[in-house]
Automatic annotation (TrEMBL):
Pfam families on file: Pkinase
Limits of the Protein kinase domain: 19-275
Naturally occurring in which organism (per UniProt): Ruminococcus albus SY3
GO MF entries: ATP binding; protein serine/threonine kinase activity
UniProt superkingdom: Bacteria
Keywords of this entry: Kinase, Membrane, Serine/threonine-protein kinase, Transferase, Transmembrane, Transmembrane helix
Gene3D superfamilies: Transferase(Phosphotransferase) domain 1 (1.10.510.10)
Protein name per Swiss-Prot or TrEMBL: Serine/threonine protein kinase
Bilayer-spanning residue ranges: 328-350
């Protein structure tokens, strides 16, 4: 953890006039989590993300304004099940002595969530629970007019009761979105944000029930190439580890044309909740590919090809003449040996009786 961040946090206390940092919890590329407590012993948490305009090439005011807008849109969702809450927030510009600030700490008060860690094959029943929880969280957000735009595994959290919750990082910008889980239409100017979320949700489930591989991705092959092929419209098969009914459901979420997908998340949840979980499909466990084998080709340096002699190249003239002379000498020598052998054979037949 960045010690300078810890020092800055102590200068911000008390947060929202009543909270004090208790301890560091965890961190990832979406920020650092700290537990909070007040004078009465109540518990809470804060996530801190430091944005730096010098790294992303955008004015600090633009970055913080976009974050504030997104957090304000999330505040009405606080306390809803299967969603990461945002209860309070503040933005603190980091002092830049003698010059305007170029970085800021964005602090969002939230609840106790843990990162979603999926380093091995998730049990089938747990995978179905994740699908159900995230589907219900997205449905709730859509009902209140909030869309995510970045539905992907790294934005899944686990609450204190073991439920899977969907997060919506405050730094999301459509222009900088990761295309890995994006719907094809998100790269156009005008599209349905709700239908795009349905696609991303389906794509995330596709990977979950396809052994960890994205559509068109094969073991050891590049994820980037698979994403490029998908966005270019190349068709793909249903996820290998899903039973037929779940596979059809996922494929409908992932239809390339928005009008061919489910109408809304209410319809998505009705369909998903109607699918039985009475048995574990054999292919679910068989198709799993460990993380270290999914993108092996991406990190593997190509081996240098052995240099082969070019047989079409001509030899130097002097060497060519020398070779022809040697061949002629050998032929003459063989001819002389043949004649001598024949003469000896004739002499043996007629004169050595």
């Amino acid at each position: 953890m960045d010690k300078s961040l810890e020092r800055r946090l102590s200068g911000y206390e008390p947060l929202w006039d009543e909270w004090f940092v208790d301890s560091f919890m965890w961190e990832d590329d979406l920020g650092s989590m700290f537990s909070l407590k007040d004078k009465n012993g109540r518990k809470s948490a804060v996530r801190v993300l430091t944005v730096d305009s010098t790294f992303c090439g955008r004015p600090l005011s633009e970055l913080t304004a976009a974050a504030i807008k997104r957090i304000n849109a999330r505040l009405p969702l606080a306390g809803e099940a299967f969603l990461v809450s945002a209860r309070n927030f503040t933005v603190k510009n980091i002092e830049n002595i003698g010059a305007p600030s170029v970085a800021a700490d964005i602090l969002v008060q939230t609840d106790d969530y843990r990162p979603f860690e999926n380093d091995c094959q998730m049990p089938y029943v747990t995978a179905r629970k994740l699908a159900d929880n995230i589907c219900r969280g997205i449905r709730t957000a859509h009902r209140k007019g909030f869309t995510f735009g970045d539905i992907c595994p790294k934005n899944i959290r686990v609450d204190s009761e073991g439920h899977f919750c969907m997060d919506a990082p405050c730094t999301y910008l459509p222009a900088l979105a990761d295309p890995t889980y994006s719907a094809p239409e998100t790269f156009s100017e005008d599209y349905d944000l709700f239908k795009a979320d349905i696609y991303s949700f389906g794509l995330m489930l596709y990977q979950l029930f396809n052994g960890g591989l994205l559509p068109l991705q094969k073991e050891g092959e590049s994820m980037e190439n698979a994403v490029k092929a998908r966005l270019e419209g190349q068709p793909f098969d249903p996820p290998a580890g899903a039973p037929p009914d779940l596979g059809r459901f996922i494929m409908k979420c992932c239809m390339a044309h928005p009008e061919s997908r489910f109408s809304n998340m209410d319809e998505v949840y009705r369909e998903l909740s109607s699918l039985p979980i009475d048995s574990i499909p054999p292919r679910y466990e068989e198709c799993y590919v460990p993380k270290d084998k999914r993108g092996a080709a991406e990190n593997k340096m190509p081996e240098p090809e052995p240099v082969q002699p070019k047989i079409t190249e001509k030899m130097p003239i002097s060497e060519d003449k020398e070779s022809r002379g040697m061949r002629l000498y050998v032929l003459v020598l063989l001819y002389m040996l043949l004649v001598a052998g024949g003469a000896f054979l004739i002499y043996s037949i007629f004169f050595l009786k």
